[in-house]
Amino acid sequence: MRQKVLLLVIFIVVYTVACYGDLWSAHPKYEYGAPVALKDSVSEVASTVFYKEGFVNLHKEGTASHVSSITPLSDGRVMAAWYSGSREGAGDVSILTSIYEPTVGSWSKERAVVTRSSASKELGRYIKKLGNPVIFTDAEERLWLVYVTVSIGGWSGSSLNYKVSLDSGSSWSQSVKLVTGPLFNVSTLAKNKPVLLDNGAWILPVYHEFLNKFPELLFLTPFSTPEKVGLDGRNRRTSFAPGVLQGSLLVTGHGELRAFYRNATETDKRYVLTSLSSDNGKTWTPPLETTLPNPDSGLDVTWAGNGRALIVLNDTFSNRSRLALYSSADSGVTWTEVKVLEDSEGREFSYPSIVRTPEGIYHVTYTYDRQRIKHITFSEAWLKGQSNG
Amino acid sequence: MADTSFNSVAPALMVLALFLIIISRNSWWSGLSITIRAVVSIVVAALTVVPFFFGVSTAGLLLSLSPVFSIGSTVLLSLFVIKAVTVNSAVTESRAMAGKGTTAALLDRRDLLLFCLWNSFLGIGLYSSTLGLLPYDLYFLGYTFSWVFLLTALITLLVIFIGSRLAWIFLFYVIAWNHTLLPSPNFFDYIIDPVLFCISIVTLFMYGLRYMRGCKAES
Hints:
The complex is a heterodimer of chains A (389) and B (219). Chain A is mainly β. Chain A contains 4 helices and 26 strands. Chain A has helices at 2-26, 44-47, 116-123, 380-388, and strands at 51-55, 64-72, 78-85, 94-101, 106-107, 111-114, 129-137, 143-150, 158-165, 176-177, 189-190, 195-196, 202-208, 214-224, 229-237, 244-253, 256-263, 271-277, 288-293, 300-305, 308-313, 322-328, 336-343, 349-356, 361-368, 372-379. In chain A, a hairpin with a 5-residue loop joins strand 13 (202-208) and strand 14. The longest helix of chain A is centred in the first third of the chain and has 25 residues, at 2-26. Chain B has one domain. Chain B has 11 helices and no strands. The relative contact order of chain B is 0.14. Helix content of chain B is 67%, strand content 0%. In chain B, helix 1 (9-23) packs across helix 3, helix 1 runs parallel beside helix 5 and helix 7 (109-130) crosses helix 11. Classes of the chains: A mainly beta (389), B mainly alpha (219). At the A-B interface, helix 1, helix 3 and strand 15 of A face helix 4, helix 7, helix 8 and helix 9 of B.
């Protein structure tokens, strides 16, 4: 009997050591890919001067639209996603998409990609409300939609889910929930687009809102099996400073990233916060104030080629009635105003999203008075003209 | 990612445990044979994965609250259910009256206390870090091999040498993570979840209370 027990103990010890040894070899340290900067190329179209304004969706009485995200598609078109319903957080809110055809200069009829009931059915979970969508296209021309759902409580109870489209948004996969935190998986939200890494992964800037507001990064690695295509997500906190959220990432060099944050700190005069990483997003400097005002509202930044960057933000201390475009010639260190996009007291213009297409065309979308999503597009030539003039 | 249907096991066990707690108060239940009790339990567990509320099952509703229930929860609930189905209530009551642990056949009092202590310490550290109360991102260490894995490996070896059955639970953590039984790439989600943390805290509190009462009675 004693011998049997001893044998059992030896077996368990050997098995334990073998299991952990297997883990060690099967799960090596996470390799941080280097951020890939957008190409500086400028197409013929981008060489002509143009600046156009329009709306992505139609105005409907009693319908609120908010938080848009925009991404170039592989065929030169541009897709926008946003959420719309009777009010923010209402049960009838759905996530809509629309495609911009540059040759015609118009947006397609909006299409509901996620509704509360479809999300509930696909995820097999109770869904109370839908929130921020973020769309992006990967190197293999797959279109990803990451969106927020809440099962219990307010926005601080949010978690992230994704869908993928292999045909530029004509059809979408079932929704899949991302597990990004250990405490009921709550309080991970996204607002801005991710940055592509040279290993095929993405860094999606996300943030935490429950008890404390702080920024995080979600390292998303696409995977594909014969049955499905999916995302593997690893969440990492980038700052322990409170009141820092909704980061927007700018690739400033090889392995170098600069993040710009919405400032939700308890101060009278808030400025956009920034922090730097020179090791592919692994470690970050503490957030510091820039010279750009911020009334605790969302912003977005994009690379503009040759060391330049563009940012769209509410450049006031108190409200969201003014929205402006700024440019930087030194990778986001200093900024100069390019154009005031909106300025109307008592109204709201917020949550901008900006992208630069591979052709050198810029697209900006933002919430227009909480009713519609406005779209502005301009060329590289127009931008140069503004800088020179 | 592997198939994650295993993730519905813990919610099913949770509903079943609740059912068994309620039904075991009826005297006719203890009069049933173990086979019948097992069959009824299997039916109840199976019903939890049937969609009924806007296409969402009872297991789905519980998973809406917490998308992952740890291996620790699954094991603890399994032990409770096995005991409730198989153990004769008269025997259990006599054991309880004799001051012996009610889960004696599967996890004795010492193991249960050690398990609850481990869950409580880990939970306090992990959730404080997650909520930003600690300036350290503990959860990130669970994605790849880190000192957290070495710690659990050492604890596994330790519990083996003290002859504790907890060794099986600790081994199950690592096997489950290696086979991606849960829809999470993070090792911490295999070890602990908020429900297990709460159960562990309450269990320790109850033990503490009972211990203090015992001390008072002795003095």
